[in-house]
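Quick look at the format.
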Amino acid sequence: MIAAGCIFLLVFFALFGLYLDQKEKDQTVSTGTAFIMDTFVDQKLVGRDSADAVIAVNKALGQFEDRMSAYRTESQISRINKMAGIDFVQVDEETFGLLVLAKEYCLSSQGLFDITIGPLVDLWDINGTDPTVPDEQSIRNAMELIDINDLLLDPENGSVMLKRKGQKLNLGGMAKGAAGAMALESAQEYGIHSGYISVGGNIFTIGGKADGSAYRFGIRDPRGSASDYIGIVDLRDTTMATSGDYERYYEKDGIRYHHILDPLTGYPGQSDLISVSIICDDGARADYLSTLLFLAGREEAMKYAQDESFDFVLVDRDQNVWLSDGAKEIFTPNEKAVDYHFVNLS
């Protein structure tokens, strides 16, 4: 009996030791920083295989860029652009699905969002080394090529074509969101139960912190330095995408020309908003909505203040901060952001 009891205790302690070892490995934290899709990618992932997950996320983002970037000459998007007005191009299932979704977004945006905006993006070349304001005729010529109805999708063959020569796709308005969502799936395949991925400021969170609290991220002050913020949002199992006029722009004659182009005017968006942050559970939709509402302006955006499918934080040109109903519960203003008026917190 004594021997049997000793054996039981040995087995118990061995199993308990394995349990503690497993639990410790499940809390393994891995971080990573990379430059992919022309932006910085930061990760903090928690789980037994978190180190492998970081590598998998970077790989997934790189593969997305190889398929979807209009600036990669061998990407599927570039092949579609090269064959515009000539023939259909067969693409993989993920690319076809994203283009179907993108076309749906474009058709519902009343012209403010259009992924056939490629010729206009190339003309302005905001990210170039020496951007200049294009002449009116060149802008009109580029605008004539923008028409989402000219994106032809053949589901039977999984192929895509732009109807007219010179037309070009550019997925910039939703690419980071879609890419981040795919990266998130890659991380979860490795059993990640907590953490976040930041793709150029688009935030994707898995669960919360080890103590049960939410991850907290600052929303940048659009008229401050990169370290200044107007407030903090609590995020758990969700996504936040931000569009603003402060990331990529140049100034000429006192006018700021930023990278978010309005397909209806041919110029950088000139609504009364300078920053829009969208919080929802879908990366591509968050990215799309942040672009759309930035161009649409505050009055149009506020129509969605009670929409339960997403939340927003808006900053207007007068430095007022406006919140959707749901955002009031997760947003904490920065008391040091004295130049801002938080008008919708009650």
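Next, a different chain entirely:
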Amino acid sequence: MEKYLKKCLCGFSNYETKLIKEKYVVNANESPFNIGEDEVLRNIINDVVKNFNFNKYPDPNANELREELAKFVNRNKENIICGNGGDEVISLAIMTFVEPNDTVVVHSPSFEMYQVTSTINYGKIIKVPDLKGYVINTKAIIEESNKNNAKILFLCTPNNPTGYLMSREEINEIIDNTQSIIVLDEAYIEFSDLEEYDYTNNDRVIIIRTLSKLFGLAGLRIGYGIGSKKMIDCLNKVKPPYNVNGLTQAIATNVLRNKELILNRINFFKNERDRLIIELRKYNYLEVYNSSTNFVLIKTDSIYRDSIIKNLEKNSILAKVYNNKPELENCIRVSISNREVNDLIIESFSVEE
């Protein structure tokens, strides 16, 4: 079959997901809260499903959902585009702007889908390594983008997998000193303390957000982009007409109308994240990085790594273990779960020195 493949796919490896057999899954930054367990939300969802017209195509423009999202982020509906998860909005941006051999700049390590989707679309990826401690190298990003006439520049903040939060000054410095399309991936923004900023007056900026993380709707796959009307109009040129299914639209719209039930969980995530970091830092053989997300990145030495992995397996915990990634050597990422599971995670990182 190789002779039929697009040339860019020869030797290409897609984003890998792992078969789940463990009891506790903390490898995908999912919420531990199932919205169906909340009585109010469960009743709302039951009503939505009971009255849903399964025989009808969904609204191709997701108008009601976009209206609720616009209220949530204090923008206008024309500034919002919906996608089948944040991944689709990433894909829309690349399909809209990247032509064969156009340069795409990303900081590294970061979310792998930027490289995967760029490669599929014949984009040329340039990775800018982080500074020590996984601090994003702002000046190097600007230099590489300008030197290579980058078409798109991806900034993930807070960053997956490191948890690093760029300051608003760092972000604006990159925007002001490059000519690229800037994609700000803010999938984890609700867990951070970054102040809100309106970029809809800048046609080069698109923000990506999701209802998968804090809102716990990962199973429904709902992401969205925020940008100027000109930016959104451009993305709509390549968006499939029925990309977000109708049931997803209806449930997400009604959850947003009752968003206070979800937003009151933010402090739980922040408190448990901080507790996890404090407890793990008591182990001298771990380097635990600050995080502005719902996950924590931990680095250790190879002599402890295998023992930790065995402990996680013994406790039936599926964490994100990084293999064959030099920039993340001996790193393990764990999502914030409920208090019981978080205690089990802390216990699993305890090994004999």
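The chain has a mean pLDDT of 95.

See the schema section for token definitions.
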